[in-house]
Amino acid sequence: xxxIADSGATKTDWFIGQNQADAHIIQTQGINPFHQSKEHIALxxxxxxxxxxxxxxxxxxxxxxxSGCTPEKSIxxxxxxxxxFPEADIHVYSDLLGAxxxxxxxxxxxxCILGTGxxxxxxxxxxxxxxxxxxxxxxxxxxxxxxxxxxxxSNCLKGQLPKNICTAFLEHVGISPAEIIDKxxxxxxxxxxxxxxxxxxxxxxxxxxxxxxxxxxFTDFFVRNVMQYNYLHCKVHFTGSIAWYFQEEVKTAAQSxxxxxGRFIKNPIHGLINYHFKNGRL
Length: 282
Prior knowledge:
Elements: E1 2-7, E2 11-17, E3 24-29, H1 38-49, E4 61-66, H2 74-84, E5 89-94, H3 95-104, E6 109-114, E7 118-123, E8 128-130, H4 136-139, H5 145-157, H6 163-173, H7 177-185, H8 190-195, H9 198-203, H10 208-224, E9 236-239, H11 241-245, H12 247-256, E10 261-265, H13 269-278
Parallel strand pairs: 1-4, 4-5, 6-9, 9-10
Antiparallel strand pairs: 1-2, 2-3, 6-7, 7-8
Helix pairs in contact: 1-2, 3-13, 10-12
């Protein structure tokens, strides 16, 4: 029995099965070794993953793709998994490689993640050949849910959006400006809180001021990231909840810069299942 995992800042999708036909997908909270210790990750595995597994299932192979899984940090996730699956053959990769494999398969292309955070890379069909550092939502992460939420909050609290939009936004979140500031500056995982505000943008996307915010943010993503790759000679593919729900705005921003978009998938997990089985990787 095999496990294939795709983990972002908010959630982890786990595939369990012997082949594509018996696919069984479950979810746990996100796992990130940059922000979580081995002990915390083990707690997530023990309390959220294991109870969803059938006791008789014997896991032989694990392929884990996750945010924060750099070569230095991947050992943290591997050690935590090894605690529960001591006999399994475990491989831990970055979420970016997972996105590239899910989106491009064995083809050349540019793979982009637009979710709570953002990232991108140039992929030659086998490996990542170039990666512009996303730098996180304070210094970068253009086009991400966290940055969209940050811009929305900033524009509302600084009076840069019409009063009716600002009033509707505060009613939507149900907390005061002071409480918003507290969540951003004093509470943990401010990026998740900011990204959680994007449904308001989706619900009000027909308003010109919201359209301007969205297009500006996605244009920044292309200019500061994608256009530093060899983008004129291959398609640019996308995965992640923000890319999926705002794909029309992403496409509009791309067209304004003569960038050719390709696939849009909500979650990489199905592409990863196809990649591993199609290419005999399991």
